[in-house]
Design a protein that fits this description.
This protein has 409 residues and is mostly helical. The chain contains 21 helices and no strands. The chain has helices spanning 2-5, 7-11, 20-24, 26-49, 51-58, 62-86, 92-112, 116-127, 129-145, 150-179, 181-202, 214-218, 224-236, 238-244, 247-254, 262-286, 290-309, 313-341, 346-376, 380-402, 404-407.
Length: 409
């Protein structure tokens, strides 16, 4: 259902390919873009699955180790607008190749990190390409697929990120448990090299993919509606990362299961995200607000139950599924609103989508780690998420009732 989320952004791209060769290989182009999004998603979410491994290896506490997760998220938040604007006039094919090269370098540095400071810097470097990659990917997908199907084209690209939550992250965690966390990052780097080669071979070389002026892209940042939507996303969606970041210790220290169950828990989370994304896409397409109100509203109830009774195994795993499902029910509404508020700046808005969600990542990981470090136990991360999502829900409800010009999608 990500075709709904990015339809406005894709529709803003007016140049489409008429070359039958380019159109004939469009599926290979989309799959190469999807491979890149799979690599990016695996790298981001795998860090949370191997959190315990590198915290023990580097001799630091789990709450302190979350700084590496937060650093990646800040890399996305800062890199999304800066990289996009700096490369505004750059050809999108060239930009994608440069971004994937930086991604590979960042993950190699992550694997080689000798201490927390080096790992934090490496994760920051790894995160910087993410927002710009999806923004540029939307433009390329729209160009090769043509009018009328562009949303579905980009949905296939984004599906790599969804698959990463179900398959990539659990598999990377499993590899980390069996061959070491450093090899997890080396493996992701190898996948990144394959993605780089696929992009080089299958993304067409054409001047039609040259960038826009910086002024046109910056126009999106003058709109209060864009910033208000990002604030709602940054707070409300943070609860999913407050829980996902600590899946490992929740499984081993709270549920008292063996570490081999962590990849299973991550897969349950990913299935919930996929189910929520399907429902959220349908709601976002039909209604301007219901997906977010439903997602955030149910999430606060789920988080309260999880924080109170999460020591019980069925409730813990049901909570993993429901937190993923409720948040991804809300996310398409956020994305639809953001892209419709500023469709004239497709690359920057696509990057800002990812920046808002990764600011949620940073806030969620930080707040969950703060609650745990304060001595309230691992389940206190759910209470941190509860407060954040409730704040996002209140702000969004106030927007709907007090700012009608921001309420309309």
């Amino acid at each position: 259902m990500l075709d709904k989320a990015y339809h406005a952004q894709c529709a803003a791209v007016t140049v489409h390919s008429s070359d039958p060769v380019v159109r004939g290989q469009c599926r290979l182009t989309l799959l190469s873009l999807a491979l890149g999004s799979f690599c990016i998603g695996t790298s981001e979410f795998a860090s949370m699955g191997i959190l315990q491994l590198f915290s023990e290896s580097l001799g630091i506490s789990i709450p302190t180790a979350t700084n590496a997760v937060t650093a990646y998220a800040f890399g996305v938040v800062i890199g999304a607008p800066l990289v996009t604007l700096a490369a505004a006039r750059l050809n999108r094919r060239t930009l994608l190749l440069l971004l994937m090269a930086q991604f590979v370098i960042g993950n190699i540095l992550s694997a080689l990190a000798a201490n927390l400071e080096m790992l934090v810097l490496a994760r920051f470097i790894s995160g910087m390409p993410q927002g710009a990659y999806f923004g540029a990917g939307a433009v390329v997908a729209t160009y090769v697929y043509g009018p009328g199907h562009t949303g579905k084209a980009f949905a296939l690209v984004m599906m790599g990120l969804t698959v990463a939550t179900i398959v990539g992250s659990p598999l990377a965690t499993f590899l980390g448990q069996n061959i070491g966390w450093r090899n997890t990052y080396f493996t992701v780097s190898g996948l990144g090299v394959l993605s780089f080669l696929a992009l080089m071979w299958f993304v067409p070389q054409t001047d039609a993919l040259n960038g826009n002026s910086v002024i046109r892209e910056l126009s999106a940042l003058r709109k209060a509606s864009v910033w208000m939507t990002m604030l709602v996303a940054a707070l409300g969606v943070a609860s999913i990362f407050a829980i996902y970041t600590f899946v490992g210790p929740l499984v081993t220290d709270v549920a008292m299961l063996e570490a081999r169950w962590i990849p299973v828990a991550l897969a349950v989370f990913g299935i919930g995200m996929t189910a929520g994304n399907f429902l959220g896409g349908r709601l976002a397409d039909a209604y301007p607000a219901r997906g977010l109100l439903l997602g955030f509203g149910v999430a606060v109830v789920v988080l309260a139950v999880l924080a109170t009774f999460g020591f019980k195994l069925p409730i813990l795993f049901a909570g993993f599924f429901m937190v993923g499902a409720t948040m991804f029910t809300a996310i398409p509404t956020i994305q639809v609103r953001l892209t419709k508020f500023a469709p004239e700046a497709p690359t920057l808005v696509g990057a800002m989508n990812l920046a808002a969600l990764n600011l949620s990542n940073a806030i969620g990981a930080w707040s969950g780690g703060l609650a745990i470090a304060s001595g309230f136990g691992f389940l206190s991360a759910a209470w941190a998420g509860f407060c954040l999502t409730l704040a996002g829900l209140v702000i969004f409800a106030a927007t709907l009732t007090r700012r009608p010009h921001l309420a309309a999608a």
